[in-house]
């Protein structure tokens, strides 16, 4: 049963990271592992039809690339039960700086471009990464599978938001 959970989490992660490399200028973007021309056309169409604010996309893309690298490393590490590598990658994600929610007064303009749902998903991402790091430290295979699956699901939800939110849609 544990192996089935890892396989499902692995497939979800591969789907989530294989084609979600939308840059502000998609043509200039380096290809992510597993990305092909058809996926890039679909992403360009999505961004053209319902664009995410360019400024936000430029900043968030770098973070998404870092997450993708860690997710792929965790996937393969989890499959071979390399607990230390899973823990290290999960801790790296959990330690990344968060984008602060908008507040009254002066703030980074990126904050005001993002919908509240982004911040909810960001919180989930960090808590799921922390749970995965603990599971790996404890060498708890079942919790690793569950936490990795939750982390992948959060990533996919964020990618969905990233690809579909229009500049005027902030809620």
Q: Rough shape?
A: elongated
**Strand residue percentage:** under 5%
Compute the gyration radius: what is it?
16 Å
Uncertain runs are 14-35, 166-171
Average pLDDT, all residues: 73
Structure explained in plain terms:
By secondary structure, the protein is mostly helical. The chain contains 7 helices and no strands. The protein has helices at residues 2-18, 37-49, 54-79, 83-94, 109-113, 116-137, 141-164. α6 runs antiparallel to α7 (141-164). The longest helix is centred in the middle third of the chain and has 26 residues, at 54-79. The termini are far apart. Mean pLDDT is 73; it is low at 14-35 and 166-171.
Write the SSE topology:
Layout: H1 2-18, H2 37-49, H3 54-79, H4 83-94, H5 109-113, H6 116-137, H7 141-164
Helix pairs in contact: 1-3, 1-7, 3-4, 3-7, 4-6, 6-7
Keywords:
171 residues; mainly alpha; 70% helix
In short:
The chain has 171 residues and is an all-alpha fold. It contains 7 helices and no strands.
């Amino acid at each position: 049963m544990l192996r089935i959970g890892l396989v499902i989490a692995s497939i979800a992660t591969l789907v989530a990271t294989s084609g979600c490399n939308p840059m502000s200028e998609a043509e200039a973007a380096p290809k992510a592992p597993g990305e092909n021309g058809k996926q890039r056309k679909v992403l360009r169409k999505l961004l053209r039809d319902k664009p995410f604010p360019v400024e936000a996309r430029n900043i968030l893309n770098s973070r998404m690339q870092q997450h993708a690298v860690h997710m792929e490393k965790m996937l393969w590490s989890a499959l071979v039960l390399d607990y230390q590598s899973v823990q290290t990658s999960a801790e790296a994600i959990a330690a990344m700086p968060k984008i602060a929610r908008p507040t009254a007064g002066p703030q980074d303009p990126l904050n005001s471009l993002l919908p509240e749902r982004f911040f909810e998903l960001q919180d989930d991402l960090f808590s799921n990464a922390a749970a995965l790091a603990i599971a790996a430290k404890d060498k708890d295979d079942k919790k690793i599978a569950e936490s990795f699956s939750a982390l992948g699901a959060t990533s996919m939800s964020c990618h969905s938001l990233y690809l579909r939110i229009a500049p005027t849609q902030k809620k």
